[in-house]
Every structure is written in C-alpha cells, then in structure tokens.
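Researcher: Structure prediction, please.
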Amino acid sequence: MAQRDIHLLLTGDELMSGDTVDSNSAMIAQALSAMGQTVAHKVTLGDDRPRLVAALKQASQDARVLIMNGGLGPTQDDLTAELVAAAAGVALVLNAEAERHVREWCAARSIEPNEANLKQAWLPEGAEIIHNPRGSAVGFAIEVAGTLVLTTPGVPGELKAMLPEVCGRALAVTGGEATQRVRFQTFGIGESTAQARIDERSHDWPEDVVLGFRAGMPQLEIKLTAPANSPELGRCREILAGVLGDHILGEDDITLAAALQQVLRDQGKKMVSAESCTGGLIAAMMTAEPGSSAVFEAGFVTYANHIKHSVLGVDEATLETEGAVSEPVVRQMLAGALARSGADIGVAVSGVAGPDGGTPDKPLGTVWLAWGTETEMHTHKTVLPTDRAMFQKLVAAAGLDLIRRQLLGLPKLPHYFSRRAI
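Model: Predicted structure follows.
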C-alpha cells in the first residue's frame, strides 16, 4: 500500500458484539471524500491489547495517516492513549491543555472531576490536542514511525464536531486535491432507473465528474464529485435535474418531510394526517423537522374501526360493508381530518401491514391512500409486499410525497405507483 494512504482503526467490544452499529467509519469516509481524500483500509477490533498493538504496528508500516476512532473515554477498557504512547515509544503524561478541557467540561455541568474523568487528560508525551467541542475526551495527534495517528472519540456527535480539524490535518499530510460536490436528494426512483436515465446522456458526460449513489430509506442520494477547478459540474447538475425531474426533493441533507414543509411554508398552508396502518409515522416524520408547528396542524391515529367512526366520522355502515382498507373509508378519514383540524391539505392511509390479516381480495401489503383538499381529493390503491416496518416507512413517505406533488402541480400518479412499487 502507498505511504500516502489513509487508514481507519475502529475500536470497541460493542462494535464486535453488534450492540453498536458502526456509523462512524461512514461519517469519516464521507468527510474525507468531500476534501478529495479516500480511505484505503479499515479495521475494526474489540478492546484487545495484543490485536490493537498489532494493528498499530501494521498501520505504521502501510499508512501515511491513521484515524483511530474510540477508546478515549474514562473507563478501563479505553486503551487508545496508552497503546498509542507505547507504539510511539513515549510516556503517558498529564497534558495540561487536556486537563483544563476536562475540568471546564465538568464545571459547566456542576460536576466535580474524579479520577476517571481526569484519566482522559493523560496523553502520549508530545501529542497535539484535537479539540472536542461537545465531549469531555479530547482527541490527539502524534507521529508513530512516520505515520500520523489522529485519535477521535467514539460518540458520533462528538466525532462529527471534530471532523473538520481531523480531515484538515490529514489533508495537510497527504496533499489531496480539493473537490467540489453536489448532492441531490430524491424520492420514488431507484438506482437502476436513475442510472438508465443518466446512461441516455452518457455520450456527453465529462470524464472528470464522478457520479455516485447512496441508497437509503426512503430517499436515494445521487451525487456529483469533480475537481475544484472543473467547469463541468454545473452542466452535469443540469443534466441530473433534467433526467430526475420531479423526483428531486432538493440538495444536501434535505429530507422528504423538510421538502414538504418548505412547500407548505411557501404557500402559507397547513396539513393534517389521518393514519391507520402507519400508526402515526407520517406525523412523526413531519414533527421531527424543526419548524413543523408552522405547517403541521394535527395527526390522527385512528387504528380501530370504532375510533375511525367516533373521531373522524367514518360511516359505520361503510366500515362494515367495505372494510377499513377501502377507498370510501380513506376518503372519509381524510374528509374528517380536514374538517376537524381546519388544515388546508392532508393525507389518509389504511392498509394491511402484516404479517397477518391478508385476504385474497386484500393481500398483505395492500394500502389505500387518500390525499388532497376538501375540493380536490385523490385516491390510489397499491400493494407493497414487504415486511411490516418497511411497509410503514414506504406508505408514510408516499403520503408526504403525494401532498408535495399536489401542492407543486406535479403529475398526480408518480413513477413509483405506475410501476406498482416505491
């Protein structure tokens, strides 16, 4: 491996047992990528001294930069400072700057620092501090046999706050080329369909603009990366906007709910949800975004039929003859929610989430949606044969997207319904 490589070493028994899911390596890699850097090698180990020593030794032979994540806390199994000091051939010393940070962190919380807190201030002699604006454990940087070791805490929020400095230190050593990036957030279009549409324009796609995908749920991120001095990124942005069309929610980290909130704010309108099979997930997605009180009026979770009747005014005879998962019921759910909330627009959903309850007429995954206003209401039935949690996420996301589409005057039946899958 090249001596300009960047390696990652993640530590912690909780990562090996599965009690903690590793999101930190992805966060580090994305931050580095935005600065034109890539991760060449990644190792995850438990709190095992011999294995960690061996990994540090190997990294000092193969990597120019090693970012070590985890093991900086106050407990006995936090071994990073001790092991890095041993690898560098220096002593652990009480670092005055780190001690001041720990004491100030404790004082801000009216805590008297104890021995465990102050353990975090014992660092390899000669190490430089990497400031932690959120937690008690600072990171540090030190050379080990020609490799720059950058240590970071395992708490994701603390790591995120420290990444600008960490990546800047790595960039100063590796000398990577600066890049520019555009990230589109989309909904309702899969990777294969997006790629096929882009392929139709591949004849005029510039070589220095790299196309990337990051699948998520419920969104798909499509990104463009180019050298900082490339004049082609703007043209590729226009190509993507053309081929992705009304599936684009916005750029950067915007969510489906945030995109809908922006449209509602722009138009001075408020929405309401009436939910059965999603159990309040539509309301939860909306209210998870800041500013939701200005655009979200109410959410009704009417799971039982008698609650659909007593709360939203759904006709009992209709529930008896048509069943809860039916077009007339979701129409009446939405009408009742609009009337009771005074909202301008809304969505109602009722379906068979499973794993039980399906029938030949209404198999597992069947869902009816109603969306719109009192004077312009639409309905659609689809079948989403997936597990319960995924079904709920897909239905909730589709409900938000259908309102967004109606407000923006986009086609009523989106691509994902025309293909019978979201």
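Model: Residues 388-408 form the longest helix (21 residues).
Researcher: Thanks, that helps.
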